[in-house]
Amino acid sequence: MANLRLASLLLLVILLGPSRAQTPEHRLPTNIRPSHYRLHLNLTADVFSEASNQYSGMVIILLTPQQTTSTISLHASHEFLNITLVTLSNTDISPSAYSVNSVTDILTINLPGQIIANVMYQLIIEFTGLLSTAEMTGFYKSNYVDESGATTYLATTQFQPTSARRAFPCFDEPFFKATFDIYITYPLGMNALSNTPGSLFTSDSVSETMKFNTTALMSTYLLAFVVSNFTCTEGTPIEGLPYRICSREETSDIRDWALEIGPKLLDSLNIFTDFNYSLSKDKLDQVAIPDFAAGAMENWGLVTYREMYLLWDPLHSSNSFKQFIATIISHEFAHFWFGNLVTCNWWSETFLNEGFANYYQYHTTHDVLPEWELDKQYVVSNLQPVLITDALENALPLQNEGAATPTEVLAMFGTISYNKGGSIFRMVEHAMTPLLFRTGLRNYMRLQYQTVLPDNLWSTLNAVINNSTTQLPAANLSQVMETWVRSPGFPLLTVSSTSTSSQTTIRISQERFLLSGSDTETKWYVPITYSTSLDSNPFTNTTPQAWLTPDSDLTITIPSGDVSWIVLNNQHIGYYRVTYSTALWNSISQALHAQNFSGIIDVNRAQIVDDLFNLARVNKVAYLTVFNIIHYLENDTSYFPWVPAINGFNFLLARVGRSSTLGSAIGDHVLDLMDNLYESVSFTHHDEDDQIYTTKQVLALSTACRLGHERCLIASKVLFHVYKSSGLRPNKNLRSIVYCNGLRHSTDQSDWEFLWSEYLNASLATEQSTILTALGCSQDEQMLERYLNLSVTDNSGIRAQDALSVFASVYNGNPVGVDVAFRFLRQNHQLIVEKYLSMNALPNLINGLAGVFTTKEQIEELQEFIETGGLPEEYLPAANTALEAALANLQWLETFEGHLHNYFSAGTRTGVGLVLAFFAIVVARLFIK
Q: What's the confidence (pLDDT) of residue 8?
């Protein structure tokens, strides 16, 4: 499943902490194994209207006891399914009773006698079910307004991780793989899709039944079906494999990018894994769903997406969406091998599915489109953000054997499993060498149609290492990876050096990096790479030059006393941070300030900047040192170092408040520092074939405008009002900047009304997303309150999947939005819970708001709300953790505010004189129709 779901799951990942004692009652016993399902679903015409949400079904499950037993246990949702009949064939034993546990959703069937081990039986269950309308999980109902203005309904699925049981009785754990025959009856005039090709089975005057070919052996969470009025466009077959994009008819003209890029990505993965997708499946449909909580879902043969993550309009969708669609498709395709073919045994090992998909969404897309530099983007967009999450004292480990309840399982679908998992696999790849890693993964594919544990992967890779010259610092790869997988966190390496006339001695030690608290016990096997001023080709070697082990520090001797600088972690392949002695930091600073940054490459400059800001955050390095070193950025116009630089300054601004005197001084400093970066891009120069330029353009202009750069704001306001008055839209890549700043600096409510109207009239999901984020940029409290009310109002035009984005846009858009959003949350928390239960909305909103609180008064109000606001009991732990984080932020401010005041001038930046000729910019260069 794509990591777009991460935003709504992040809080859970942070809160649940290390493994606790497992609660096995949520898990099924393994004494009975299903091998095949025959599932019949009947959806009448009433389902595709407001009249009814009920359907009927029957499932026949072939199962075999592994030992003699008198009970059968499987899953069936007590909330969405009503069991009407249970029978068992191949035996005279009839089920005497059955019941569904309302907590675990385990259906227990009691038998008056024993069923015999190793004998196959047919379990037949008839049931009625309800399509969910409040949650986008299980078997649920969605709708959209078509071109004629009519509301059209569809039924679709989202089963991962534990929601197949909401659609039909089944053994709903990844371990229980089986094959499936699906029969779906639906009204004439509609169509049905499932994992495999279908053919008409029966029909009458009002309905028809589609029978789908038997699936490959797979877990229940990968089963999917969509019943709709969608149309499909068939692309070029992939080695004879039918390949289609399906969506609402009115979006048929924006399917081309997915049609073009998909086969290229699949071909790259076919070659890399040496296991052709067509060997396991016989078609590949990708479907855009109007209401979809997850970003995308890797259902085998029927991949489902949010519309804006599959459909790209070359005239109106930004380059960032184009890249995002390519990488999300790549993520889902990677799952065909890592997750679908070879599956994690249980969700405690989710990283075996999601970590690989996370890494290969970048790796594979980079193979197809190397000019996008996704190998470098991986560092600043994926690795560096998860180092923040993983530095929390209660971070989850990659393998959390205590995950059993639905809440614990859901927590495994967060940045640790995705981003850390991918980053760890990237590190292992280079520790082994990419060639050996690929060979090992090809052998891993021989475990096809099985479920696996981490040791299955490590032993497969270890076998390849044993047949090579690669040396490990321990007996086997499993031992090397033990701490990385079973313990939370990552190491901070401390580097010092001494020199003589003939040699330089480098000493490296390790400790766990934590944002708070301490852990001196956890140690890792750490692959070490480094570059020095003596290297003719620095930063190219990513194979370990040495290993730091858990039981001792490391000493490296360089046979020269003339080393002017050393930087560890070439290309930021290693999953760790690095700090240096004062002398070494000074040498790095001198190197960065020298011509061509002394050969220190952009991705390692990004690593240095990111490490510095986070080391200062925990007082490992003085902020004065950070600002002195990163002052070199005034001469650096590369995109990659500026991402962590802006993130680092954003952290400071979030703590001190952007509108405070200190915040203004910091903002002015950033604007001075980024003068050359700003001048390297333009509102008028667009190069849509240069992905990195466009990405840098958006980063630079959005930051400059947010911090009050005068020319940037003038340009944004001019572009916005030309759009409002003439309908000429800004360039598609700059719309988020223009829309947001057009409202942020407007006192005219009609500007907000205009953009809201544009949202309601937009049919393109990417444009809707851009506008929704911009609407929260307004500083008008009345409009922001109205906006939040619309997000919880039925039929307002805001889809449930976008509600959390609305709230985030308000409290992130402006300081005034923080108080507006918090007040709305206090007054409407019960309504929020009711409407967005499946999205874990309330804890996420509290956590998001607490992260932007800057005053003691806000934190006291949060504490009062938690104590007296009537929060549901299950949300109190999350709320209290958010409160603790807010208090920690306040304590950080008390510790460092004086240091920041000492560095930054409180003066106001004087803008560059405005040139009247600016207003005469040729409109054709500014806008597209």
A: 32
Q: How far is CA 557 from CA 294, 499, 503, 507, 580, in A?
A: 50, 10, 7, 9, 17
Cα separation, 467 vs 484, whole angstroms: 24
Alpha-carbon gap, residue 375 to 359, rounded angstroms: 10
Catalytic residue selected from 173, 298, 307, 332: 332
CB contact set of 646 (below 8 Å; sequence gap of 6+):
670, 699, 703
Tokens representing 752 are 């907000």
Which domains, and CATH codes, for the chain? 28-335 (2.60.40.1730), 491-632 (2.60.40.1910), 641-919 (1.25.50.20)
Cβ partners under 8 Å of residue 769, min gap 6: 308, 802, 805
Q: Where are the beta strands (DSSP E) in 455-515?
A: 491-499, 504-512
The pair of structure tokens assigned to 78 is 């007590």
The residue whose two tokens read 């011509």 is: 595
**Which residues, 6+ apart, have CB-to-CB distance to 874 below 8 Å?**
none
Query: Tokens at residue 358, please?
Result: 């996370």
Taking the whole predicted model, whether its pTM rises above 0.85 is answered as yes
Among the listed residues 121, 139, 122, 108, the one whose alpha carbon sits nearest the alpha carbon of residue 43: 139
Count Cα neighbours of 553 within 13 Å in the Cβ-side half-sphere: 14
Phi, psi of 673 (to 5 degrees): -65, -30
For residue 878, the model assigns a pLDDT of: 77
Q: How far apart are CA 102 and CA 794, in angstroms?
A: 29
pLDDT on residue 839 = 55
Contact, 759 vs 782, CB < 8 A? no
CA distance 660 to 666: 10
Binding annotation for Zn(2+):
331, 335, 354
d(CA 288, CA 225) in angstroms, rounded, equals 13
Classified as helix, coil or strand, 723 is helix
In the Cβ-directed half-sphere of 168, how many Cα atoms lie within 13 Å? 27
Cβ neighbours, 10 Å, residue 884: 12
Mark the ranges of the chain whose per-residue pLDDT is less than 50.
3-24, 906-929
> Token digits for 797?
């035009």
Q: What is the pLDDT of residue 2?
A: 64
- State how far the alpha carbon of 899 is from the alpha carbons of 646, 658, 888, 896, 902, in Å: 19, 17, 17, 5, 5
Q: Which residues are annotated as a binding site?
A: 331, 335, 354
Q: Which residue has the tokens 């692309």?
A: 235
Residue 332 designated active-site: yes
List the structure tokens of 904: 């930054």
What is the torsional sign of CA 761, 766, 772, 777?
A: negative
Nearest to 644, CA basis, from 590, 596, 603:
603
